[in-house]
Amino acid sequence: MDKHLLKQFRRILREIDHLEAEKKRIIDQYLAPPVITGMPSSHGDPDRIGNLVARRGEYQDMIDAKIDELINLRLDIEDAISGLPSCDRELIRLRYIEGWSWERISVELHYTYHHVLKKHGWILAKMKGENN
Predict the structure, then answer these.
(1) Are 5 and 75 in contact (CB under 8 A)?
(2) Which end of the chain has fewer CB atoms at under 10 Å, N or C?
(3) Residue environment code for 102-113, b if the CB has 16+ CB neighbours within 10 A, otherwise e
(4) SS3 121
(5) Is a pLDDT exceeding 70 seen at residue 87?
(6) What's the whole-model pTM score?
(7) Using N-to-C axis directions, what is the helix angle for 113-131 and 48-81, rounded to 10°?
(8) Among 7-16, 38-47, 48-57, 122-131, which range has the highest average pLDDT?
């Protein structure tokens, strides 16, 4: 497993967050109960809400597929780091699963910034060597 695959986890997570936020915005905007003003109005398509509700299921299926992809990648990452010492697993999880900065990781693990970077390189090399 290389760092590009590890970075993919955060990208998928951000994509899911974006899709969920967009779904909420769409629901709030288009499926909110109408405001009753007492004035006559025309809405054009009488089945507009029904069509939107039907498409909502398709949208949710798309989000669910992304969540499945995220879960599968997380399991692959856990499998790839399972043979590492716990401090190395922690470093990989903090960086790629939690998305922490190198500075924050150094403080958390009580290492210098440069040692964290070197250690990260060693871990990736070890992970790459075990996968070949």
Answers:
(1) no
(2) C
(3) beebbeeeebee
(4) helix
(5) yes
(6) 0.74
(7) 90
(8) 7-16
